[in-house]
Design brief:
This protein has 11 helices and no strands. It is mostly helical. It has a domain of 74 residues. The chain starts with a helix and ends with a helix.
Length: 291
């Protein structure tokens, strides 16, 4: 099993490190989620550069073989390629620097103001002093553009898959409502709290959608399971997830919403892994459709 995980580059979805794990653990803070997304973005550019450089090397070896070019040339003029290989790295650096600075500013803001945020004021000081007038203005909100972009892209993926866990909203509506709430906050602390909540909520929706896709695959490979269901298997699956969330709330009284969301994410990951590993013999299939 370890060899198969290594060969197929399976990324562990757990919140704790596992032997032979590839990839990062689930992010616990918005800044860590932004760092993971930035890592993936940079690797995208690295792959493009790797392919481009390998193509140039292979092309050079092919066209400058001693049999094809019997008379070697000391100087090879390539004005176009020289311009392109100078301009492209500039654009790539710009794409990488922007989210990097956003993460650095967010990290600095949390370090400077970990538990407090200035109280906003809609009125300026009545004093003529310029210093008093400036200090009475609210602090500007430092936005985590990396995580906001990640949330937007992940919502678009769910929309493209017609996920039933987006509450039946039109394309673009779900992200539009989140963006409006983020832009209307008045304090930095409230912005981080709201962004963290939306990120956790989206992680739950993503896990539910992933579990549903695996469940549909099990039903497709085993048509007899639908006959055992008392009603629509998909509706039964939705009811099962809601009941398990209610059971988590009952068994963990007094837990914070963030802790409850973390437990639900772990439970959904457990369901997905069990369905993938055991298929129609999964314990959760038996709970859903009966023995």
């Amino acid at each position: 099993m370890i060899v198969l995980k290594w060969l197929f580059l399976t990324i562990s979805p757990c919140d704790a490190a596992e032997p032979w794990q590839l990839g990062s653990q689930d992010a616990a803070t918005p800044i860590m989620q932004g760092i993971i997304d930035l890592h993936h973005d940079i690797f995208f550019f690295l792959i493009l550069i790797l392919v481009f450089v390998l193509w140039i090397l292979v092309r050079a070896l092919w066209h400058f073989h001693y049999k094809k070019n019997a008379i070697p040339q000391r100087i090879v003029h390539g004005t176009t390629i020289e311009i392109l290989r100078t301009i492209f790295p500039c654009f790539i650096s710009i794409f990488i620097v922007e989210p990097s600075f956003a993460l650095a500013l967010d990290d600095a803001a949390e370090a400077l103001f970990p538990n407090t945020a200035p109280t906003p004021s809609n009125t300026s000081s009545s004093e003529d002093s310029f210093g008093l007038s400036v200090l009475s203005e609210p602090w500007p909100i430092t936005r985590n553009l990396g995580l906001e972009s990640s949330i937007c892209n992940r919502i678009r993926l769910l929309e493209a898959a017609n996920s039933p866990f987006l509450l039946g909203k039109e394309k673009g509506q779900y992200w539009g409502e989140i963006q409006e709430c983020l832009y209307n906050v008045s304090e930095q602390r409230e912005y981080y709290r709201l962004l963290d909540f939306e990120n956790r909520d989206l992680q739950i929706r993503e896990r539910k959608h992933s579990c549903l896709e695996v469940f549909r695959g099990v039903l497709l490979r085993n048509p007899y399971l639908e006959e055992r269901a008392a009603y629509s298997p998909q509706e039964a699956f939705f009811d099962f997830l809601n009941e398990r969330r209610d059971a988590l709330d009952i068994s963990n009284p007094g837990s914070s919403p963030a802790e409850m969301d973390r437990l639900e994410i772990l439970f959904l990951g457990e369901i997905e892994r069990d369905l993938l590993r055991r298929g129609d013999e999964s314990l959760y299939i038996k709970q859903l459709l009966g023995d």
